[in-house]
Amino acid sequence: MSGITDLPVELIHNICSFLRPTCVPGQRPHQCRECTHQRPGCVFWYRGQIDVSRLSRACKRLRDVVQPLLFLCSSDNGGHPARRLVRLLRTLLSRPDLAHHVRYLMFYHLEHLSPSDTRFIQSTITDLGLPPVPDSWNTDGEPEYRLLPLELVLAHTPNLNYLRFPLDYDWQLNLLPRFTCFSLPSLRSLEVTHYFIAGDRFDASLSAVETIISAAPNLQSLSLPSPNDDTNFSAPLANLRRLDLQANNSISPELLTTLISSASKLVSFSLHWDALGDAYEDCEDRRVVDAWDAISRCKSSLEELLLDIRNDTELGEAERDNLKDFEKLEAVKVDGHSLGPLREAWLRRNKHARVDGFLSGFFPVGIREVTLWNLDGVEMRGAVRRFARVVAVGRYPRLKRVVLGPGEPSDRRGFDEWRNAGEWRGVEQELGEEFGRGGVGFEVRWTSPSLRWEGLE
């Protein structure tokens, strides 16, 4: 009977995939029992990585076949993320043949390095012919150099597909702009997380993000915390299909418009414009209508829309009163406050009508899923009831699901208060029956989904 070393390479790869399943990164919120975050880097994936590592040390043939798989992904599971980055860099410098196997890099935190690792980073920079960095670069007094280890790794991983890294408002990329040939042509997904310290600001350095985007012409998915506006953004987004502006976001209307206007192929857009008002000085400058004006620029391509805006944001006066010209739109998640300026525009155009008719012709005919958050139970109950009636007679033939609820987790940590929730309890059954006549599933979620933290079931 043949042993594992006699098996074809493809079969050995399949065995390794069973030990450590490789999930598609960035496709949240899909989750499974084996991998809590449905991507490399979760706890279960890391445990499988250990098993594959042991297998690679069994003999020379398995080492040659399996070892490249170990470098498919590097994450901060297991602790000491900066040290793990340095260890990866040492390997890539000594074994450049492994560099093209690295596909995923994902880190939530980058701590300070040991003295020996600090000296190694400095000597590596010098060996590359780059200007030396200050001796104090690895201290709290020099935060702009915190990303140096990551920069050196990125310079040696040209086939990277997915990158997730933390960023603060004063962190910078100091090395990558100096590489004349720095390019990430295979990078498809970039997720920037905010490096938060209690009492700190919430925004992140836009110039650092712009440097990476400029090197990734084929980028398709971008997820950002609040970007600061220190630069005039000009990075190419021609192939971007998904833009996610994360919770607690305070992006300016001008930058929001620039990003969307640059992404002519945008298919999925989400904005949690819900930054805490006392965390930013300029939050008062935005209006709900500013978000709709920006979103309207991608109406010809957009298929999925999520819009969540704080209910103390000024509405503004909208020109549009529906989404019927978003012809490809299939899924909408929107809160009641975001609908405010469109509802007011509809009432102005239909001076003798009641608000009950607002939602009846609001969506494009191809809509498949509608989620409405934090709706006013007094003012909007009639509108949802009438929406259900037109669904029942076939106005939206592709619609499959309608959900009412208090919202998804955001900066409010999943405990949003649906102030008028009680107004909906008396009509839940009636609405369910009405939507059911049109073959549409209806659900009312009375509580927000709880957060799932990294590494916890």
Can you put this structure into words, describing what you see?
The structure is a single chain. This protein is α/β, with parallel strands linked by helices and 457 residues long. It has a domain at 241-449. The chain has 13 helices and 12 strands. Strands 1-2-3-4-5-6-7-8-9-10-11-12 form a 12-stranded parallel sheet. Helix 1 (9-19) crosses helix 3 and helix 11 (381-392) packs parallel to helix 13 (428-437). The longest helix is centred in the first third of the chain and has 14 residues, at 43-56. The radius of gyration is 25 Å and the shape is elongated.
Layout of helices and strands, plus pairs?
Layout: H1 9-19, H2 43-56, H3 60-70, E1 73-75, H4 81-94, E2 104-106, H5 115-127, H6 148-154, E3 162-167, E4 189-194, H7 206-214, E5 221-224, E6 242-245, H8 253-262, E7 268-273, H9 288-295, E8 304-309, E9 331-335, H10 336-349, E10 369-373, H11 381-392, E11 401-405, H12 422-425, H13 428-437, E12 441-444
Parallel strand pairs: 1-2, 2-3, 3-4, 4-5, 5-6, 6-7, 7-8, 8-9, 9-10, 10-11, 11-12
Helix pairs in contact: 1-3, 2-3, 4-6, 8-9, 11-13
InterPro entries: LRR_dom_sf
